[in-house]
Amino acid sequence: MSTHSARLAELGIELPAVAAPLAAYQPAVRSGNHVYTSGQLPMVNGSLVTAGKVGAEVSPEDAKALARTCALNAVAAVDALVGINNVVKVVKVVGFVASAPGFTGQPGVVNGASELLGEVFGDAGVHARSAVGVAELPINAPVEVEIIVEVRAEVSA
Fold it and tell me: What's the chain's average pLDDT?
């Protein structure tokens, strides 16, 4: 049986360092057999990749790639807390898209996160989801993603 970390290696994906919180919160917390991540922005090496509204300054295609980055950051937060191989199931994904007036393609943007989770976790990556258009996100980010995962009762990070 392949592990999630082995799958990441097969895909050529390296988990980034956990993004530093921008305010008073933790990147991820565990409650029972679930880990909840805080909203993750498309940060790479401590910097926001792109700023602006989707459908204006940011194309839907670029925003989809940014949602993938957000999901990767969320997986990194889970890994740092409990170890990626202890994930049993991705339960829920919530994606927020800073949308220009009239932009209604939020589901396609958040597919970037969902597709990454499917690639990494296979059937265990199939999840419930919300894709929400919002007026503004922190530091003018175009996308923000949070995830909830079920983990083994006994974890060995």
Answer: 95
In this structure, is residue 156 part of a structural domain? no
Residue 14 placed within a domain: no
Check if the beta carbon of residue 60 is closer than 8 Å to that of residue 131.
no
CATH number of the domain that residue 143 is part of: 3.30.1330.40
pLDDT digits (tens, 9 = 90+) for 105-133: 999 999 999 999 999 999 999 999 999 99
**Spatial distance between the Cα atoms of 38 and 13, rounded to a whole number of angstroms:** 22
Say if residues 58 and 52 touch (Cβ distance below 8 Å).
Answer: yes
Q: Is 23 among the domain residues?
A: no
- Asked if residue 79 has pLDDT above 90, the reply is yes
Residue 82: its H or E element: helix 60-82
C-alpha distances in angstroms, 117 versus 25, 89, 90, 102, 146? 24, 10, 8, 28, 12
Number of domains in the chain: 1
103-to-59, 61, 109, 142 alpha-carbon distances in Å: 11, 13, 11, 12
Q: Rounded to a whole number, what is the largest CA-CA distance in the chain?
A: 47
- Measuring CA to CA, which residue among 2, 133, 128, 27 is closest to residue 80? 27
**Residue 157 scores a pLDDT above 70:** no
Assigned domain for 46 exists: yes
